[in-house]
Design brief:
- It contains 17 helices and two strands.
- The chain has helices spanning 2-10, 15-41, 44-57, 60-64, 67-78, 94-130, 142-167, 171-194, 200-220, 222-233, 245-267, 270-278, 280-293, 295-316, 320-351, 364-388, 396-453; strands at 83-84, 90-91.
- Strand 1 (83-84) and strand 2 form a beta hairpin.
- The radius of gyration is 22 Å and the shape is globular.
Length: 454
Amino acid sequence: MGFFKSFFSSLGVNEAVLYSLILRSWQLLTAPITLFLITRFFSPEQQGFYYTFNSLLLLQIFFEMGLSFVLIQFSSHEFSKLSWKKFGGIQGGRRLRRFKDILGESMRWYSLLALLFFVFLVPTGFCFLASKSSPNLGFYWRLPWSIAVLSTTLILLSTPLIALIEGSGRVKEVSLVRLGQSISSISIAWIVIALGGGLLNAAAIASVNAIFVWTWLITKNPSLVRLSFRGILKRRSFKTTEFSWRKEIWPMQWRIAISWISGYFINQLFVPILFYYHGPEIAGKMGMTLSLANMLPIIGQAWISTKAPFMGTLVAKGKLAEFESVFFTLLKQSTVVVLLGGCMLAILPFFLGDISIFERVLPPQQIAVLALSSVITHLVNCLAQYLRSFKKEPMMGVSIVGAVLISSLSWFFGKKFSSEGIVVSALTVNLFFGLPSALWLWLKYKRIWGAQVI
């Protein structure tokens, strides 16, 4: 027991990181089962519709515009002078009034975004998916799509509350909620697939996630929920507010929004492109492969994201030396893990290619290319998190150019060369533009902002 404790400690695995790693480990362990069930019970066309569902639902990025990440950063700074009471109550004197303003404005913003998301995405999905639909498909997709969008809308509405709670330092609780969501939703999804529910699997995942998170918020944080909904209805006057969205949140939010929207074009546009030009079967293979490759940066972020509120607090207190020590330790630890995972993902298909599940993914060479691209993505994410701890977003320009390059090259070469053209385009842009540009920005602003804090 002492050996394991020492080993995990050397990797920077505290309680919050542990729960986040358990979540990632659960997702990793269950992913092969989910993939097996999909290959067993879904036709190649149905698989393509399923992963296209997922890519289209991620259009919520365009509506949410990265605000959750901004709220985490602001909450970490605010809770340097605030504290929690029972049932989600907050105390902190005059600072509390400012937090209420942030909460109320955030809920008003998300209420509008959630409504727009639902109104836009349901008909948009109908039109796009119908382009490859025919009476011979043998499965229904319209009802599952509608339920999935509605449930995702409810999840979107809960986002500001979760972000503010996580940013306050309650990372362990939020990690447990996400773990509970994942265990519940995946378990139900398996049952739905095995019973022949088909694409209702996607609806079940979104529905269970929405029910789980709102049950936790209402039962464990009722005071915060009441406060948030009062904030929607009661708008404070400009003269009495302690907080200015336009001056404080918006300068960072619009930059984060463009970076996050660009991220959709960098990571999620591949499946719709293949769906439209080459049909649902190859789109399904790309979607399944991406679900594996994208796990690498997600696992790496278990270290960085769980310490993001703490790093923001260190910057707020001017403890830059401690901040940098924490960051570099996390960078080293997480990168080692991501590199090992990338090597495994790249090598295994060459030895296990005879297993039937590999008939539903991209060829081994393309998997290796996506794995390397995911490792680069992790490094860029780490550098971005360092800079965002200062409540600023300098990565916007890099994100825009990267998105334009990857989306245009993926469209051009994907149309001509299918999945091979897309994965090579993505790696080329990430390796020769994304990483060098992010490193240059990090070195530049690290020097400037570090001198200002000191």
